[in-house]
Amino acid sequence: MTGRLRGKTAVITGAARGIGRAQAVRFAEEGADIIAIDVCGPIESVQVPPSTPKDLAETARLVDQAGGRIVTEIIDVRNTDELRAAVDHGVARFDGLDIVCATAGITSRGFAIGLSEASWRTMLDVNLTGVWNTCTATAPHLIERGAGSMVLTSSIAGLRGLVGVAHYTAAKHGVVGLMRSLAHDLAPHGVRVNCVHPTNVDTPLIQNDVVRSGFRPDLDRPPTRDEFAATATQMNLLAVPWVQAVDVANATLFLASDEARNITAISLPVDAGSTQR
């Protein structure tokens, strides 16, 4: 099946790499125009290596290679004014908006009682308030269209508790609550709102020494990819350590497409069965 998003325009945050890039490319393959947004730089209190302008340029190259049109913007989703301006610019370029993927997010580690206030605040500001900012910046355009789909990227941490990431878990649970309320608020305008919930995804967000070490505290050095995989596999029912970014993009594509025209307010796990363990 091709052309499932022909004639549609999608805003995607966190588009420089990982899930956001996979969404941009996959949507372009199905005919969508892309408004790609990413911070492309470091975030305070986050040790994971950040995305870069070069990463966002590579997303643009891949979208072009897939036959799509794209505009890119380097924006922090915490900056409401710049985010609205970027969305408005892209919408004017492509004459409307149909799909919103609120995918931008960060990760860091810390037990609930040991987190610094800065780490807690930054996590909530990016992973929850940043999602709300994205939704409020884009909703007027969907309402004007009288139709559309929002897909918010949560996590298995939005469906269950995880060790050592209390702030991340709280933020991702908050995204679910936001999704459910938005689904009610926007239904009268023909706009659907849903969440996807990935398990670990094979992206730079987890494939780094900081995250790998959190999975193998028994080692006095950063674990190898294989050592990380052995532990990560234990989280899932299926015998895989992680899913691929395209797996999440395909689930998002379904929710964004007309195939899901009567689906709203759901949480769709892309988790290899991890929430059932």
Structure explained in plain terms:
This protein has 277 residues and is an alpha/beta fold. Helices cover 43% and strands 14% of the residues. The chain contains 8 helices and 7 strands. It has helices at residues 18-29, 53-65, 80-94, 117-145, 166-186, 209-215, 225-233, 245-256, and strands at residues 9-13, 33-38, 70-74, 99-102, 148-153, 191-198, 267-270. A 7-stranded parallel β-sheet has the order 3-2-1-4-5-6-7, sandwiched between helices. Helix 4 (117-145) links the parallel strand 4 (99-102) and strand 5 (148-153). Helix 1 packs parallel to helix 2 and helix 4 packs parallel to helix 5. It is globular, with a radius of gyration of 18 Å. The two termini are 34 Å apart. The model has no long low-confidence stretch (mean pLDDT 96).
In short:
This protein is α/β, with parallel strands linked by helices and 277 residues long. The chain has helices at 18-29, 53-65, 80-94, 117-145, 166-186, 209-215, 225-233, 245-256; strands at 9-13, 33-38, 70-74, 99-102, 148-153, 191-198, 267-270.
Low-confidence stretches: none
Q: Could you give the distance between the termini?
A: 34 Å
Oligomer: single chain
Strand content is 5-15%
Q: Strand pairing plus helix content: what structural class? A: alpha/beta
Give the number of DSSP strands: 7
Give the SSE string. EHEHEHEHEHEHHHE
Quick one: overall form?
globular
Write down the overall mean pLDDT: 96
Proportion in helices? 40-55%
